[in-house]
Fold each of these.
Amino acid sequence: MGHARTFWTAWQRARDAGGALVMRMEDLDPDRSRTVYAEAALDDLRWLGIRWHEGPDRGGPFAPYVQSKRRSVYLDAWHKLLAGGFLFPCKCSRKDLEAALTAPHESSSRRSADQRARKAEALDDEPVYPGTCRHREGHAPQLRGPTGVDLESPEGANWRFRVPDGESVEFKDLNLGPQRFVTGEDFGDFVVWRRDGVPSYQLACVADDAAMGITEVVRGADLLKSTARQILLYRALGLRIPQWFHCHLVVDHNGRRLAKRHDALSLHALRQRGLTPMKILSADLPMDTIAHR
Ligand SMILES: [Zn+2]
């Protein structure tokens, strides 16, 4: 529901501006991505009456529109960032990061530490990286000389973007107004390529938005901080920065984000219960009310 309303806003804005709406399937996370989910998402959005001009099902000038088929685009961006001295390899495990960031009395099982780390990622509220691998010998900014890593490929380490200290990243959001984040405080060196071989959301999103000629990005306000991170990537890659329109998050009566729920408020469930697209898209917030009508 939350994602559907955001995409609906994107559709309206593209229509009003005489632009094209682009549907891109972001399916890089092997744990969460299944073809059947992708098909179902497209089907739900079509049912809502939203039509996109370019996408996995329609093609377009910048195909493919499925991230799992665009690896070369991300590798190219990774190489450029590496050559520019913006990256360093990080060998910290989740456990290392957890140990560096949590107070001693918060000791707990490894499993729950993993869960907390995952939760932090999901909320875009990951702790500021403590800088453990930042200045490791042999990992100087330009990465010249023996580094112990294969510089032809990002495999085998988490690659982090070297975030400047104490720099203000500002942008004007078309919906929420002026935004300001301070590097090293609001966020630290962030991952652009994961140890398991998957490019991060930040890198893939920037590389694709630039390659696909995206002029305005419409997404949820939970990604404001990611936008600040991505602006650093745009600058490092010498790419034109798009405009941003962050939507208010849709929450239920308990303040929980609808996008994080997979229950009676899923689009599919509401559809099964006979609600019309108009009712779903025009309902007042919070959205729990429409589920009980
Ligand atoms: Zn590290």
Amino acid sequence: MTDMRTPVRHEAELDQLCINTVRFLSVDAVQKANSGHPGMPLGAAPMAYALWTRLLKHNPRNPDWFDRDRFVLSAGHGSMLLYSLLHLTGYDLSLDDIKHFRQWGSKAPGHPERGHTPGVEVTTGPLGQGFANAVGMAIAEAQLASRYNRPGFEVIDHATYAIVSDGDLMEGVAAEAASLAGHLRLGKLTCLYDNNYVSLAAGTDITLSEDRAGRFDAYGWHTVSVDDGNDLAAIDAALQAARAETTRPSLILVRTHIGYGSPNKQDSFGAHGSPLGADEVRLTKQNLGWPTEPPFLIPEPALVHFRQALARGARAEAAWNDRVAAYADAFPDLGQELRRSLRGELPPDWDADIPIFPADVKGIATRVASGRVMNALARRLPALTGGSADLDPSTYTALKGFGDFNPPDDNDDDTQGSAGGGWSHGGRNLHFGVREHAMGAIVNGLAAHGATIPYGSTFLIFSDYMRPPIRLAALMGLHVVYVFTHDSIALGEDGPTHQPVEQLAALRAIPNLTVIRPGDANETAVAWRVALETRDRPVALVLTRQALPTLDRSRYAPADGLRRGGYVLADAPDGRPELILMASGSEVSLIVSASERLHAQGVAVRCVSMPSWELFDDRPQADRDAVLPPSVKARLAVEAGAAQGWHRYVGDTGDVLSVDRFGASAPGNEILQHYGFTVDNVCARAQMLLAERRETSASPVNSIRGASLKLGDAGGHKVPA
Ligand SMILES: Cc1ncc(C[n+]2csc(CCOP(=O)(O)OP(=O)(O)O)c2C)c(N)n1
């Protein structure tokens, strides 16, 4: 048994002491919580120890130091492994937090959560996501290095590491991301694969028999195998080989044993997700020569060794600060730009080129307006970077002339699909290929990395393919922008497989995600402003394929009303409506036309644009009541999507013109007719509501029926403050 009081004499002895400290801190925490995953930390502790004490560039006193290496525990269920490393190396995570692992108020939650625990880069747990986040981080590093570094001034120079598990490699999102990472030649990305042949419910012999190294070789990765996960020298050598490899990402396949050291549970799925049990903890400690008491033992020599990270980290950060200062002297403009991007600030006048779209009855699609706005932003906003899942020509998301992110020596002859500006790791146009899921997770990695404002784009229907990372972006509060186009049955001929119905409702159900469906080109411009100013959560822009009239804002309320989520476009005389029509996106122009007809029929109608429920719900009650006065019960919402949720705004007595079945294959206009999205039908539904109101009550608002609606009159709208 290790004598904890005597100084360690040999380096190997100290290594072993440190590794076992990580192991049993993790095991004791899981045991005390009576919940968690002890098997993974027991097996993966040596590789984690080697990386964290010998290679990883980090400063525990400043987890936000920008040029730190990024570390992702993709196998988030092994969270105690990470918490042990964070505590031992000196991050602000106390032993008490670890003793309260998985308990209310502890900084050591069940799975690693970004923003909750200092030093946790990304929230992980849903397998595969962390792997793809790491790819995004490596892309961010490569892009920023290419933009900012100058000979002799390497201001951006860090690596990205991840520990990944069988489950990670089984998930499709990791396959997508790995394929892209290989193609992009992300040489500073290294994944350590905890290759233990056991997952949650069984050995992997019943689920996973492909040649993993061969698969990654085929993706264009550099692969190294370590036959014994306890062989530190072999792990070190593999890590060094990965570091020396600069043109391919590296996968180090480390043969480990889940639950290593546990006499009765090693190599069994029983060690995966349940505490070992008091008896087995004791037996495991005895087996590995560790004192059975006290729990949470941290031998002094181990702590001293781990805590060397503090001085090393402080030195590294200080050297970097000097480097950045010298850089800012040599390249003042770039230095200023870099510092601003690092702080996540928008440059002054970032929005100076955003176009104002002239009123136009024929109008343009909001996807086209979005494309113009993005390109107007790109020059002044270097942090803006992103792309689509092979749909740029349809989503209008290419930043023209701002380069394509690809290996520099690729694609010299074939410039198909290029946004212009050259192929390099400095390109701001990311080409995700047909990989929506990875795109979602990769943009999360870019946002978590910092100094970028990433966007990802596809058809709204395929937001379903990226729902898990959207949810995680919202959970992490990442500043990501989604550009979802082809937003309804109105997209037409592609038919029901491509026509979103329930996707808007599904996105709105995600907490902390702002969904904006602008009603015309000028609302689209404001939506982009909101998306860029909103730094603490993701924003989804939901845009049309088809052209929409650009409203004449001298006649209707300014598009800036979008900031309030819902605003009165045009009102009944004296602001006393008997009927409210509300709509988002493409249906706004429909209710505007219907309002004109109803007004001619003598109805006192208010027309409300509702581009964003989340922005609207954020307003004080009085503001919301000013838009939707509680006394007005006749309310009709019009949206070419599922009705779910609209009753919050139309109330029990209101109505929703919606799409609650699948779409159809036909030209968009025809489908809209068949589904009732016509002025005739909106007016008929509105009149029915009014008739019902008159039947059920002698409404005082009836007295203003017949007064004139001032649509078309600049003073006609009444916009709440
Ligand atoms: C997307 C997703 N599906 C399912 C789970 C539930 N789960 C947690 S760990 C795990 C498998 C664990 O196997 P492995 O990745 O090999 O980890 P190890 O058992 O080696 O710790 C599963 C299915 C999850 N966390 N994420």
Amino acid sequence: MKWKGRRASTQVEDARGRRVAGSSAGLITIVNMIVRMFGIKGIAVVAVLGFIGWQAGLIDPMALMGGGGQLQEVNSEATPEEDELFGFVTVVLADTEDIWTQEFNRLGRQYQKPGLVVFRDSYPTGCGTGDARMGPFYCPADRKIYIDLSFYDELERQFEAPGDFAQAYVIAHEVGHHVQNLLGISEQVSATRGQPDYNQNSVRLELQADFLAGVWANHNQRYLDGGDIEEAIRAANQIGDDAIQQRTQGRIVPHAFTHGTSEQRMRWFGRGQQSGRTEDGDTFDIPYEEL
Ligand SMILES: [Zn+2]
């Protein structure tokens, strides 16, 4: 994909140097120490003294808990490769902004750009704490995409899906979820949570996000290099639920089998890429067995 020198999105937040300050780990260590030294009774004594101290304004329990989950700056050294990847992500996001603004205009709507947060390891989001092990994700509550760039190493090595267009497809899929959010589709699916067809709806939602990534690829053609579409299709193939579950033992899969099979993901991405029109990707209008 041709990306160097192209417009970078201003919606990207670099949170690689920010961590959640402390945790209750410090407090747990103190409690364990007291129990070891004075037994359970020690805790009671310390609790009473602590309460008095807190009432007197001498002790700040939030400070003891590690700053109450505030963010702190940490030393973050990025390799040149990582910085290049960061630059790439900002261009891909800008590219999705242009294409979806245009596509929404055609549909008589107005596109609102999503945010994108590049973080490391874990980060607080509008949808709870984001964990790099979950892979990139979109949070509808704060309309932001979250990605730890180390996922791209994993995509290349573990999932054997190398190439910049495979990486771009991952962003485009998450932007697809943002489009679904703006169109009110995500909300309809969340409303079925706890009902028997929720899992199927979730698969429909994921396949539609792949379709929407395909729509983006269709409009992006002038920037494509030979083999780019194959890279994206390969990625879609490698990160199908069936493929992931076969490969990753012990890895966090937040919702088991909710993305569709490899074959389905490739097919829906391909459909979007051929059509280029949002309205051709109604994955909710087809019997589940025929998806
Ligand atoms: Zn998804």
Amino acid sequence: MWEIQERFGLDALATVDRAEPEPGPGQVVVRVRAASLNYRDLLTVEGAYNPRQPLPLIPLSDGAGEVAAVGSGVTRVKEGDRVVGNFAQKWISGTPSRERLRTSLGGPLDGMAAERVLLDAEGVVAIPEHLSFEEAACLPCAAVTAWNALVAQGNLTAGDTVLVLGTGGVALFALQLARLLGGRVIVTSSSDAKLERAKALGATDVVNYDTTPSWDEAVKTMTNGQGVDNVLELGGAGTLARSLRAVRFGGQVSLIGNLSGLDAQLNLAHVFMRGVRLQGILVGNRDMFEAMNRAITLHRMRPVIDRTFAFDDLPAALEHLKGRGHFGKIVLRVA
Ligand SMILES: NC(=O)c1ccc[n+]([C@@H]2O[C@H](COP(=O)([O-])OP(=O)(O)OC[C@H]3O[C@@H](n4cnc5c(N)ncnc54)[C@H](OP(=O)(O)O)[C@@H]3O)[C@@H](O)[C@H]2O)c1
């Protein structure tokens, strides 16, 4: 398994052996077959996500595998079942809470960069039949976050227009899920080549935010001056002001990411004078995950995997994420 050891930093990652986990009552041991990377994992390893996180820590919130052993009283799953971990083990339904979030994998709890992990039987979700372990490992954080912003908090309906910033993990799930639900999707990216790939995935309109710095105006033009119904705000401080100008009266800006920083300066009139809803999004609960999986199964939707790395190459995989060359998800093959 991989550990962030005595200090933070990509160079502080090391492979170690720990005792084989044994399932207690209500627990399962999962033989992990694949894990995936999120921007949060990079921040965690670098110490920027939670500088007070006790170490050592096994990183990565997302992983999929087979149930290898079950503890007493477990009826939800059995040995051999293909499962994926729920991001916050004890967040089954309802709103987030401090107690529920304390059970998040990959910090504060040990994560999925390990051959075998101990999880709550209630904290795993069945893998859609048509997905491989690599594909299923992409779902817990990025896809559930996109689903929460679009469906649980966004009430997306056919014909709605969604603006998605960038072409990373959350962004491409938002594109795929919004299209599957009948939405029109506008995607921004710093790369024309990535925008072409986004079109192939169903993006109806695209805009390059490097060559068109006033991308909010371009989005307004694409929507007959109205603005979009829902912005999946992944950029953070550097993009929020433009996102607020790109949303329609009464629309929603789903605050998800901080790729360009956390401290934003805002003209509040752009929010209240236009009746805009600023909705914070925090991943999602198990009920959302299972609802999303029903849609993914029905439409045989497949996550977009940019690249798969060998287990020993976790530091290189994180460097690849940091380099922003990726399109979709970065996966670690575990066994
Ligand atoms: N609130 C939550 O629960 C939650 C859950 C998941 C993720 N997040 C956050 O959401 C963000 C995205 O996460 P991820 O894992 O999907 O990241 P990721 O896969 O690393 O996506 C990064 C991509 O975003 C685009 N990008 C980078 N800087 C940008 C900017 N200033 N403006 C617009 N786009 C930019 C780039 O796409 P192009 O190359 O196409 O330009 C980049 O490749 C992160 O901030 C993460 O912490 C939050």
